[in-house]
Amino acid sequence: MDEEYEVIVLGTGLKECILSGLLSVDGLKVLHMDRNDYYGGESTSLNLNQLWKKFRGEEKAPAHLGSSRDYNIDMMPKFMMANGKLVRVLIHTDVTKYLSFKAVDGSYVFVKGKVQKVPATPMEAFKSPLMGIFEKRRAGKFFSYVQEYDEKDPKTHDGMDLRRVTTKDLIAKFGLVEDTIDFIGHAVALHCNDNHLHQPAYDTVMRMKLYSESLARFQGGSPYIYPLYGLGELPQAFARLSAVYGGTYMLNKPECKVEFDEEGKVTGVTSEGETAKCKKVVCDPSYLSNKVRKIGRVARAIAIMSHPIPNTNDSHSVQVILPQKQLGRKSDMYVFCCSYSHNVAPKGKFIAFVSTDAETDNPQTELKPGIDLLGPVDELFFDIYDRYEPVNEPTLDNCFISTSYDATTHFDTTVVDVLNMYKLITGKELDLSVDLNAASAAEEE
């Protein structure tokens, strides 16, 4: 271990593993360490006995729930947009060869007390029970405008500069009602709150385009995909990638202590009396707790069930978004469900998560609107965890710290954090201009 590295990465959470893989591919000499004896950190995947031990303090789960090893329960479950940035990172790095993906069955939204399919195309908008006949026409026109919008072609702009016009003003031009604005902003554009309404409309329009492009890619019922056996495979896939490019991995390294010189710049990491020297450290907030601040908490419930979520067309994998306004909250609530169809549970079993930014100290009460959508559950676990973000100046100390995972059940914010960190560390943007369809065709050959 007494060697010198360009970068030492601490923690094997998904963000840290993606960065470790990307930096290794760039030719940097990387050492990756974790105090745990398993991959994944906070975003690890547990079998049933591990889940039971974590939440119930008992070594073994009841036999009637099936074999423990048939469960792969992700602690930070998130679906991937089929055409999104994470998929581009996977293809860019060729990590897809270590993983198998399957489309997610359904994408739903909670509006006026009911779970409804999210319409994302003019045709779906026309069929949707979310809107009356006149609203359907207006929404169809808006979806058509979004689909045809091309920043380089002023003819598609309808006289509006979307980098100046707010989302609220753009939508007003089409005369959409509040509930429609709600599901478009939260369930299609995937905003976590209503701030986007007062910001330039360009971001929302590009998010909507991504949703419909992702939906078209697999011709499925949703724009999302998810790995077979769950997300626990992802950190390990990037770890393999790093190793292929010369990265060194060390698990079960206790007390990874980051060392600094008198100017406050990082010089290395010490564990078990040995110090590895380095120029930069990349880590999750738990390794440098004096350089982060608490920004909130996430409340979540984990359910084991023997049926799909009601009113989702018997979907074996599904996301339901409950927009903040529908619940009288400051932030959205998310329901995630996956099952034996993605090999994350034994046949006939479903795993559901309900998560949201905690606004009280009582997760049971706070999560009730989401839990009520699940129907009868076999087992229910509650959890609440703190979220942190870095407050250091990386240009001064060469420490690059990730932000804690949020309550969302999609990867949008996670990948943005990774790409921002990559740019800070390397001084360059990651080029993700890969042709996804060409890459998919190459995979199939």
Radius of gyration, CA atoms, in whole angstroms: 22 Å
**How far is it from the N-terminal to the C-terminal residue, by CA?**
42 Å
Helix and strand composition category: alpha/beta
Integer average pLDDT: 91
Task: Write down the overall geometry.
Answer: globular
Query: Ranges with pLDDT <50 over ≥5 residues?
Result: 439-445
Let me know the largest β-sheet.
Answer: 7 strands, mixed
Strand share of the residues? Answer: 15-25%
- DSSP, total strands: 19
Number of helices: 15
Residues in helix, %: 25-40%
Give a description of the structure.
InterPro entries: GDP_dissociation_inhibitor. Keywords: GTPase activation. GO terms for molecular function: GTPase activator activity; Rab GDP-dissociation inhibitor activity. One of its GO terms (biological process) is vesicle-mediated transport. The structure is a single chain. By secondary structure, the chain is α/β, with parallel strands linked by helices. It is 32% helix and 24% strand. It contains 15 helices and 19 strands. A hairpin with a 5-residue loop joins strand 11 and strand 12 (266-271). The protein is globular, with a radius of gyration of 22 Å. The chain starts with a strand and ends with a helix. 47% of the residues are buried.
